[in-house]
Design brief:
Layout lengths: L3 E5 L6 E7 L4 E6 L4 E6 L4 E5 L9 E4 L5 E5 L2 E6 L2 E6 L8 E8 L5 E7 L7 E6 L5 E8 L2 E6 L5 E6 L4 E6 L11 E5 L6 E7 L5 E6 L3 E5 L5 E6 L5 E7 L5 E6 L6 H6 L6 E4 L14
Antiparallel strand pairs: 1-24, 2-3, 3-4, 4-5, 6-7, 7-8, 8-9, 10-11, 11-12, 12-13, 14-15, 15-16, 16-17, 18-19, 19-20, 20-21, 22-23, 23-24
Amino acid sequence: MTTVTCVLNIRSVLGESPMWHAGERRLYWIDLLKPAIYRFDPATGRNGEIKAELGSYIGGLVFRAKGGVVIVNETGLHTLDNGRLTPLVDPEPDKPGNWFNDAKCDRQGNLWAGTGDRDYAAPTGTLYRFRRDLGFDRIDSDFACPNGPAFSPDGTTVYFCDGTSNTILAYGVDAKTGRVGPRRVFAAMEDPAFVPDGMTVDSEGYLWSAQWDGWRVVRYAPDGRIDRVVKLPVPRPTAMAFGGENLDTLYITSASTGLGDADLAKAPLSGSLFAVKPGVRGLPEPSFVG
């Protein structure tokens, strides 16, 4: 049995976007709806909040190769400098009803992030790839609740999902040209109540998926079959990241939003941060080169 440990008992509203910083030996993560950016120290168990003027929402966070972090929100990409946001690029100034949700960088340092409808109702969103010159490519469209992405170890497969479709998608990427092929279904939820959320890939090329309302995270083989299911004490896990000195600890964020008193009585740790030793190592998450 794989033991899941609550390493931080906190009632975050919508914990998300964990990212391990090897140099600091800290786990960065966010609360989308508070909003807040946190920095967790596994050695001491302390969780510090980074003081920042974030407005009403933060959709994702990645590290920047130049230093600092880049966040995505309802108005595109921003750097965070001295607690204040500086805009980088907004690909959708004409879509005020959309916001960005989730962000990750590929092996080349490009930032991938998807937009979606704030009410998760209309398929108005797009999956973007942002390059070092802050130009961007529209990869795919018609998403309502974007989640992911994640990348195979060799960078030739991108995983992405729309929470309203209950499927995980995959795209082939040409390693030389960067050309992205058409979407294909990588895996479908066997229970329609389970919603695929954040993802990461381990060093063996297996995909880990947090499944909202599934009380679990799932490890998928590269061919899409379920390899392992890790059950959690909360219904709404949201995202994962490998961390620790050897990248052998899987940190899992969760949410409490939308849960009533009866639900929280059954799952009082909702919103907390969890860790598990899955017996496999992760990969360093690349930083944005832009």
